[in-house]
Design a protein that fits this description.
The protein is α/β, with parallel strands linked by helices. Strands 7-1-2-6-3-5-4-8-9 form a nine-stranded mixed beta sheet, sandwiched between helices. A four-stranded parallel beta sheet has the order 10-13-11-12, covered by helices on one side. Helix 9 runs parallel beside helix 10. Bound molecules: threonylcarbamoyladenylate (TXA) and magnesium ion. The site of magnesium ion has 4 residues, from loops.
Length: 316
Amino acid sequence: MQMDINKQINIAANLIKEGKIVAFPTETVYGLGANALNAAAVAKIFELKQRPSFDPLIVHIDDISSIENIAYVNNPKIYDIAKKFWPGPLTIILPKKNIIPDIVTSGLPTVGIRIPNNHIALELIKKSGCPIAAPSANKFGKISPTRAIHVKKYFSDVDFIIDGGKTTVGIESTIIKINDDGFEILRFGVITENDLSQILPKSSKKTENIIQASGMMKSHYSPNKKFYLLSEDLLSRIDKSSAGLISFTGKYNDGFKKVIQCSQNNNILEYAINIFDAMHQMEDSDVELIVAEPVEEIGIGKAIMDRLKKAAYQHK
Ligand code: TXA
Ligand code: MG
């Protein structure tokens, strides 16, 4: 039987206070968390995840009033954005204060901050009494976790995993930077350009890619099996009877060995919610290769295609 959730949160909060690592659910994906103010604890995350030291972590807080403990709010519009989208799947990059150790931000002068929209995550941050630095709880480059069982697959050695069920958004937060003329998206998520434009114009600037962070790498989120985007050409080349299809429209399901229907009625948000879960299921099944149905690159479709293209990159 599963332990009472409040008990799990208490255990995890005590471990965080002791400088240990715990996995916990957010609304997007599970995170691998440590006290963001404890450099030695954060170093363990990099080690466990086999994450390159140049890939900075996101810091999670539970209240807007905590932003200025760790970062400089250099533009009042930041509060407009934060009030509108937090708690929620949005990370804002801000100039960091010295209290945040350099290891968290990979030496960058900025820190990514978000308030997750998940009561377990919020309780955990509150009870730990510190901001929590947490990347997604997968080994570097692998499929992001949307269930506690996915975390277990990667980390048998983590100090504790809070099981909060399946996440409700399913893909990682949208990451933005605020320039003097508006916002710039660094990683796409379910909060879209259009949503953000209601509060702030889109910036005409484009930051040079100073870091080769996971969100910006060409290859990432990869299953341990061959992974392809569906196309007419691909269908003519593969043996469907040994392949798995991650399906959106349902139009191509015939003949595949295994089909995971990610949406019942062409609902793009539902596709996002289920995409990583479907990738895990396919990875753990007996199919030989995995095919995923692409979608139009607009709105949330942009975030989905970003993940799918990166997962497929090394199998091109
Ligand atoms: O939804 C999410 O954001 C999840 C949950 C756990 O909150 N976290 C997550 O973390 O996706 P992670 O480590 O998988 O991705 C963090 C990415 C980095 O790879 C980098 O692209 C970006 O956030 N990032 C973090 N700090 C940054 C900074 N100071 N400047 C630019 N990008 C930054
Ligand atoms: Mg990640």
